[in-house]
Design brief:
By secondary structure, this protein is mostly helical. The protein has one domain (2-138). It has seven helices and no strands. It has helices at residues 2-12, 15-33, 49-52, 66-70, 72-79, 95-118, 123-138.
């Protein structure tokens, strides 16, 4: 879905598609980099990338992912349903200008995770089958690069 919203955003540049793109980016960012809070209502049910591929090393200091941390607070605030944070000038930044960079950083991290997953049976085959089935169900073209 990330790749779909990324392509649609490039074409339509509408706010609803930007929010869909940022939502997918945020979900994958949290999954890939373990950004899910260790306590709270959903902590015991949350899954992160290292649950599937223990060898996955999410290097948060890698410069190619820096945009994810630079925009994290703004994305979270702008996707909140009701929040005073949406009015905070520090988080009201033009994410539309950085949406492509944000998505690219997530895709780059996803590809790296998939390489780690390929070395962790049985997940690789199961994930590929699930992705293919979901793409078929949604009428999306099948992808050979393992895009999210």
């Amino acid at each position: 879905m990330l790749e779909y919203t990324r392509k649609e955003w490039k074409v339509c540049r509408q706010r609803y598609m930007l929010e869909a793109l940022l939502l997918h980016c945020r979900n994958l960012r949290d999954f890939l980099f373990g950004s899910i809070e260790p306590s709270g209502g959903h902590a015991n049910r949350a899954l992160i990338a290292t649950d599937y591929a223990p060898s996955w090393c999410a290097n948060k200091g890698d410069r190619k992912y820096q945009v994810l941390w630079d925009t994290q607070e703004a994305i979270n605030a702008q996707l909140a349903h009701l929040s005073r944070n949406r009015l905070d000038p520090d988080v009201r930044r033009p994410l539309d200008e950085q949406a492509g960079q944000i998505a690219l950083a997530v895709v780059t991290a996803w590809r790296s995770f998939r390489r780690a997953l390929d070395d962790t049976p049985p997940w690789s085959g199961a994930l590929d089958k699930a992705i293919t089935a979901k793409r078929t169900e949604l009428g999306l073209p099948h992808d050979t690069e393992g895009q999210p």
